[in-house]
Specification:
Layout (H helix, E strand, L loop, with lengths): L1 H8 L1 H16 L2 H4 L5 H16 L12 H40 L5 E4 L4 E4 H16 L2 H15 L9 H42 L5 H19 L1 H13 L1 H12 L2
Antiparallel strand pairs: 1-2
Helix pairs in contact: 2-4, 2-5, 5-6, 5-8, 5-11, 6-10, 7-11, 8-9, 8-11
Amino acid sequence: MEIIDSILKNQAAFLFILIRVAAFLFAFPLVGGPGVPNIVKVMIVLSLAFVLFQTVPIQVQPKLTLVTLTIGMLGEVLIGLVMSLGVRMIFGAVEVGATIIGIQMGFGAAMLFDPVSNQQVSLIARFEGLIALLIFLSVNGHFILIRAMIQSFTLVQTIGFYPSAPLIGLLMQLAAKMFLLGVKISIPVILSLLMANLTIGIFGRVIPQLNVLLFSFPITIMLGLIVLGISLPYFVALLRQEITGMGPVFNNLLLGMKG
């Protein structure tokens, strides 16, 4: 086949594409989790690498030494991992916000095994994580990722990774933004439970015979679930805004990696 012959003639170019795509997708929560079979991951990576090999312009030195090839492969892995941080920031923020909500509602000790992240997560974090994945797919976030991957080969050529100071600063900004977004997600429930606990505390002072600890648990859980359901449109709108705005984030990351 023509594509096979082309790959055999440009093995280094296809290898660099394959490594960058694999590093990016294996760090992506939707594909890289242990809940997805390895054969499915390999097929997705190979399919996308075949498409990109025929689409993006790749310039590779005609003669690569072992040192140059190793440095290039390591750079491709780092490029894929850095790009995946732009997506993981959103899902990490959802997990942070949902964990705060769960603790405030009294679900701090109730944990579930999440097959996507391969770790124990709270009930609310699992629930909002699934909603975040559905929102991501509904707004065509996967197309944004493919577009960013195509753009990455234009902005950052093979053996062109450079860990610049602006890149480090941008990664720190993304980490700070993750916690800020998590607080924004949890703020409706936090405020409502704060007012509820304040009211319960006042009742506890007025009526000393009232068992505040026993009385507060069902109220905080019920109120938290009600506010969580009411605030779902706010949660969806906030995530839609963040997911559709991933394009400039990827562009800034790629410019920061450009030597």
